[in-house]
Amino acid sequence: MELAINNESTSAEGQVYQDKQTVAAAMKNYSVMHKFQFRVKRSSHRSYWLIYVAESCKWHFKATLINDSTMLKIRSFSRQHTCCLMDETFIQRKRTAAVLGSMVVPKYCDPKTVFTPKDIQTDMLSEHGLNLSYMQAWRTKEKALQFLRGNPCDSYNKLPKYFYILEKNYPCYVVKLKKAVDDCFLYAFVALCTSINGWQYCRPVVVVDGTFLKSAYRGVMLTASTMDAAGTILPLAYAVIDSENDASWKWFFEQFKEAYGERPSMCVVSDRHESILKATSVVYPGMAHYSCMWHIWTNIRSKFKKGHLQLHELYFATTRSYTLDEFNERMLKIEEVDLRVKSYQYDIGYHRWSRVHATVNRTFTMTSNIAESLNVVTKDARELPIFDIFEYMRTLLERWTKEKLSKAKGTFTYLGHKYNKELEDNSTLSQKLRVRASTYHIHIVLDGVKRYIVCLENKKCSCGQFQLDELPCAHALAALRHRNETYKNYCSPYYTRKSLLLTYEMPVNPLPDEGKWDVPQHILDEVVKPPAGDKRQPGRPHKERYKTFDEIKSKKYKVSCGNCGGARHNKRTCKNAPKKK
User: Fold this and answer.
1) Interacting residues of 492 by C-beta distance below 8 A, sequence separation 6+
2) What's the domain of life for this entry (predicted)?
3) Mean pLDDT on 440-455
4) What pTM was computed for the model?
């Protein structure tokens, strides 16, 4: 039982502590809180005796062991001071970082909590009357983090027993740990049973990405994720590696294939990292690999210094084109703006970024945004030691699975939220269309002067949206309403509420407390040393990624008004007088 520092009644005679270290820490905190200083009169394995620094004062504290146990009991505690506490010599105990750090530990339990040294200075002054310098506050924070997370070096040694407990409690988990010849850490991979089970109810589009870690030994965290029937993120696997290179990405995809296998029409979406392209071609030969359209646009801006609004709109409209006619028309407009941009897109390969040229239908997953969103969620956790990173990811999936299953049970539409919204928008557009049946399955839909042909039997429309989105477009919905037929048989099963419930039917159960883990001795004896690479240098850590030369040199384009030439607005919203020509 620990001493409740803010409650003096708990530090009375008869109070019991679990060991001597707990007593010593509690009394150090007590002296800081009450602004006085004591000294140790006697300290042995059986007793702990404190007196005030002024010999004339009768304040004292004495605790001794209970029989042959490690617990100590307060035998005598006199709080009354017979000296002048305002004496400048004895007014305050020396504020060590360890003492103050133990007081602010609860502030750092959640990695997302921002509690800076400046906040420590403010809190200590307002709550305890302690005036700390910035360096004292910074050391206090470092000590608190050390108490909470331990030594980053020791965190690697926890991985064998952690992975053993995962495999023991959850047999469907796929966990892998790879070490170098000298027992130094190389790679670690985890795929949760919930994701493995739910993968079969999601479209086989895997979005992969890597993000740098900010812990003492750096490294990179790789993630693979997909989109569920509600249009939200389903993390499939995560790994920690030394750096993004051919060997590490190949190892990651080998473990991913062992956990998830290979499915028909499976494809990968990434930022076109060369190592990813090489790894997928080796591990998944013949599988389609697509590029994130945002990544290509970033390259166009930095490579050709082209970032104006017209080209931006043309590029994304071209990427999302549903028919070849639309695509070719927009590519001609891009060619008029800058022929180099069209040549660059051609060299990449239209099939890697264009929806209409794709060899495998990836529907709404045109970017790697879900991987980037996952990186944002884990941004604060990337400062944690490696053991805490893996546990943070597991608890994150545990929470998400519970929340998403609860939302799925509260969904009463046939489709998940994202796709039901798309269907409602298409349904609104379909109200203004006229339909003329050609045969039982083929219908002609008139939208003003435009004519579209819908084949319900093959689930196709001449607009291209029906077959590429695998969701009835406005023209298909108009044809279905003309036939008085429901849309349910014409939607992809990956969009339904049923698939959403099946995706999260297997929960991520919590792990027992670390102190209750039953681990064999040979697992405990296994040694995992920190990576052999360079350790992060002392000082304030770098928070953001290092930008490439092109990103630094490229100038951000500014939108200016075509009417008056002013900034921060456009011609449509301009309220100024036209500029003189």
Assistant:
1) 203, 363, 470, 471
2) Eukaryota
3) 91
4) 0.76
